[in-house]
Amino acid sequence: MGRMDADAGKPPFHKDSLDPRDTTLIIPSLATLLSIFHTVLYVGVLYLSPQTRPRRPASYSDYNRQNDPEYIKLRIRAVTVATGISLFVTAAVIRYWNEAARWGGIWGWETVKEAVKLVTLVGVLFLGTLWERGVVLGGWRWVVEGEWREMSWSWVVVRTLVAGPVTEELVFRACMVPLHILARRSFASIVFTTPLFFGIAHIHHLYEFLLRNPGRLGFGILRTAFQFTYTTLFGWFATFVFIRTGSAWNAILVHSMCNWLGVPTFGRVSEDADGWGTWVDYVHWGLHGVGIVGFAWLLWPLTDGVAPLMR
After folding, report:
1. Whole-number CA gyration radius for the chain
2. What does the alpha-carbon distance between residue 291 and residue 124 come to, in Å, rounded to a whole number?
3. Sign of the CA dihedral 78, 79, 84, 86?
4. Which among 34, 50, 201 has a CA at the least distance from the CA of 104?
5. What is the four-CA torsion angle of 81, 85, 88, 91, rounded to 10 degrees?
6. Tens-digit pLDDT profile for the chain (311 aa)?
7. Judging by beta carbons within 10 Å of its beta carbon (0-12, 13-18, 19+), is residue 246 exposed, middle or buried?
8. In 3-state terms, what secondary structure has residue 146?
């Protein structure tokens, strides 16, 4: 009776409630090795075929090859296959597909309430960007004047807002995180260490950059270091959301929204800026500050999901 009372209120997959005799538990080194496998597979599959492999530009059009629709479709197909393999391997390790789906949050479609809270949280973090996009650059016309009706989807948009977020979150969150939970690693350890695999998966972009820009190794390293840092920081957030809400779809939602908003601009945004800038820039910088503080304040309450994987 005391054990039941002690476990009351815990998530169904709370780390401390795992029975050490449970055959689904795995050793930490296996969780790490499988995470390496998922990372290598997701990136490596792009290098198997000459059609998806980066190459040195042979003509001017090759410099924009990464945005070529056929090239994008082939790479989406490749990472989709890799994602399917990762899902199968994770399910096999956890022994049963239904159990794997529960751990991975695959079927845990978020409630409307959770989705609204997460969109609000990301919106608060990007207040400065929303000011820049919506007011300074005239993005309000997109809604008020109905310019959204003229929006056309492209394969670049599909890659950025759909294929990338879906495949990356299924692999780097839904496939990896449950393995580390079953290895009885702590909440903090999983949040801060598993996104390193996500960051490492982006390092291969240095090779692609150097193919297009030979001789710019120093800048390429700085560029890749920034990308590694930014993707790892985002990975912390996405992993936090995934564990706290127990839904891979929630992680996909915030990933897609962050991709849409892009990297924040912290410089001057006013075209008339001179010296220390104008009031437009001051509002922009102020909103960035308010957004960061507001994000930290709202992070826990707005990620309080109905079926967290652990606390």
Report:
1. 21
2. 5
3. positive
4. 34
5. -120
6. 333 333 434 454 455 555 554 555 789 999 999 999 999 999 999 999 999 999 998 777 777 889 999 999 999 999 999 999 999 999 999 876 666 677 677 766 667 899 999 999 999 999 999 999 888 877 766 666 555 556 678 999 999 999 999 999 999 999 999 999 999 999 999 999 999 999 999 999 999 999 999 999 999 999 999 999 999 999 999 999 999 999 999 999 999 999 999 999 888 887 765 666 788 888 999 999 999 999 999 999 999 998 899 87
7. buried
8. coil
Both structure tokens of 204: 């291969």
Q: Which two tokens stand for residue 231?
A: 């993707």
DSSP 111: P
Cα distances (Å, whole numbers) of residue 33 to 88, 89, 104, 179, 194: 16, 12, 18, 10, 12
Structure tokens at 6: 């002690």
